[in-house]
Specification:
This is Alcohol dehydrogenase (Cytochrome c). By secondary structure, this protein is mainly beta. Helices cover about 5% and strands about 35% of the residues.
Length: about 575
């Protein structure tokens, strides 16, 4: 397909706009305003802060029981797998990505397909945890998304034509990309996937109109950051951290810390917040030290590409407790704060300006790797005997001592984004109660090969439930209410000014509950497991709720005993949209 010059496309769109037919160009101001009004969905997280809160209240606890389907759309194709995408809605169009690096533009009122782009994937891609895609970004007249072969593609919103395409990195080395990009102060921010293959995590900032690089910031200590001047010249921009301080030997060169879930951005602080994943390999005895910036939230000044602060949840991680989970900014006690429900089972309330820890507490019932978080130092109180052992110390030199760990490496919370309501001042966290047997094995780095050095089996902890949607008070750590679920929760959450919380289950239900009490007031069977976050918008005076349905993701691939327990669930690929009947 021939790439059309952006200027020509913009000229074309302005001409159509004069005739009343084109998309209004998306701006930073529109993205910020839409998060407050709820009229459109212009960003992953419903706003760059990631609160997933809609100000709409036409649908509320009094009438939610009357919700009915408005339309549904099938992604089609022979293969489906997991569908983790959050739709975007602008100017009457829905933009939704699907498995295998596909994206669709649909009429948001009727579900009519306007166009489809299907990325041509090469043989040999190496996604760790299913062929998912979590969504796109909108800017100007473009819709931009990442692909499994580690590319970024920008399409014209009206036609689906490719405007620009840029390679992020080498998929043959284990790099991939699954997260939704975000827009921050006119920049397109993206991360990378591939922590299980010894890649080096980083955050990249690009010009969203052209795809050209502005700066890049590695999330493994010792690697150089870069910026590009107006002429495209690459300039050194300082090493991340202090070389050699927290990584032994040369392990930092293949250190992992992938930024695979993407990030958030708060215009009030001017900072982007990206989580960094597990250090590589999983064998923690090889990596004596904290291994910055793995398992951390990294706050980056978007104007300079410099790390302003970091907070590390699991230093010297030995359990695959990726720190990628979203950092959601909110106001508490007159301060701009950030909330994070970490994969390691602890919820953190952190000052969004300087990274100072305010509080940390469990959001799951069983944690074995640490007894708690020291609020003075911010560091976990490790349980030494519950760390997987050195395999070379074993009699056969092939398997370290096996330990039982909770949560499992699939996390107290994983990719499924939580929501925050400024009305109730509660976070709504999709939590999971499970554990694992884990042990270390000898490992050496080989480009493009799995770089784990561990074996594991996921175990259930309770007979009656694994997942639980929990309303958490970020100030006190109290679980205000919970709704338990038989299968693990793997889809995200939406909360609204109508005093509602929406979330989906692997069993196929999209549910709505009273945000204050947790009483379920509505549910609908979507036909396949929901592992995606719902959204809401308003069109022609009516409020809509939408969610993508399609079972998959990491659980059926890596879930051990849990995967066997839910192997009856069927795959799918649908967008469902609901509204109140007239």
């Amino acid at each position: 397909m021939q790439l059309k010059p952006l200027a020509a496309l913009l000229s074309m769109s302005f001409g159509l706009a004069a005739a009343g037919g084109a998309t209004a160009a998306v701006t930073d101001q529109m993205i910020e305003t839409s998060a407050k009004s709820g009229q459109e969905v212009l960003s992953w997280g419903l706003g760059t802060q990631g609160q997933r809160y809609s100000a709409l209240k036409q649908i509320n606890t009094g009438n939610a029981a009357k919700l009915v389907p408005a339309w549904a759309f099938s992604f089609g194709g022979e293969k489906q797998r997991g569908q983790e995408s959050q739709p975007l809605i602008h100017n009457g169009k829905m933009f939704v990505t699907a498995s295998y690096s596909r994206i669709f533009a649909l009429d948001a009122a009727t579900g009519k397909k306007l166009w489809k782009y299907e990325h041509r994937l090469p043989e040999g891609i190496m996604p760790c945890c299913d062929v998912v895609n979590r969504g796109a970004a909108l800017y100007d007249n473009l819709v931009i998304f990442a692909t499994l072969d580690a590319q970024l593609v920008a399409l014209d919103q009206n036609t689906g034509d490719v405007v620009w395409k840029e390679k992020v990195d080498d998929y043959a080395a284990g790099y991939s990309a699954t997260a939704a990009p975000i827009i921050a102060d006119g920049l397109l921010l993206t991360g990378v996937s591939g922590g299980e293959f010894g890649v080096v995590g980083r955050v990249e900032a690009r010009d969203p109109r052209t795809g050209k690089m502005v700066w890049t910031r590695p999330t493994v200590e010792g690697h150089m950051g870069y910026r590009w001047d107006k002429d495209g010249k690459k300039i050194e921009n300082g090493v991340s951290g202090t070389p050699g301080k927290s990584w032994p030997g040369d392990l930092w060169k293949t250190g992992g810390a992938a930024t695979w879930l993407g990030g958030t951005y708060d215009p009030k602080t001017g900072l982007a917040y990206f989580g960094a994943g597990n250090p590589a390999p999983w064998n923690s005895h090889l990596r004596q030290g904290d291994n910055l910036f793995s398992c951390s939230t990294v706050a980056i000044d978007v104007k300079t590409g410099q790390i302003k602060w970091h907070y590390q949840g699991t230093p010297n991680d030995g359990w695959d407790f990726d720190g990628v989970n979203e950092f959601v900014t909110f106001d508490m006690d007159g301060k701009r704060m950030g909330g994070k429900a970490d994969r390691n089972g602890f919820f953190y309330s952190i000052d969004a300006n300087n990274g100072q820890l305010a509080n940390a507490f469990p959001f799951v019932k069983k944690i074995t790797w640490a007894t708690g978080i020291d609020l003075k130092t911010g560091r976990p109180n490790f349980v030494a005997e519950n760390r997987p052992g050195d395999p070379t110390a074993a009699a056969d030199g092939k398997k370290g001592n096996s330990v039982f760990s909770a949560p499992s490496f699939l996390g107290g919370k994983n990719q499924m984004p939580m929501a925050y309501s400024p009305d109730t001042k509660l976070f709504y966290v999709p939590a999971n109660e499970w554990g694992m047997e884990i042990w270390n094995e000898p490992i050496a780095y080989k480009k493009g090969a799995a770089y784990l050095g561990a074996g594991f089996t996921i175990k259930t902890l309770n007979d009656d439930y694994i997942g639980a949607l929990r309303a958490m008070d970020p100030k006190t750590g109290k679980i205000v209410w919970e709704v338990k679920n038989g299968a693990p929760l793997w889809g995200g959450v939406l909360t609204t000014a109508g005093n509602l919380v929406f979330w989906g289950t692997p069993e196929g239900w999209l549910k709505a509950a009273d945000a204050k009490t947790g009483k379920v007031v509505w549910q609908f069977q979507t036909g396949s497991g929901v592992v995606a976050p719902p959204v809401s918008w308003q069109q022609n005076g009516e409020q809509y709720i939408s969610v993508v349905s399609g079972w998959g993701g990491a659980v059926p691939l890596w879930g051990g005993d849990v995967a066997k327990k839910v192997n009856y669930l069927e795959q799918g690929g649908m967008v469902w949209v609901f509204k109140l009947p007239k």
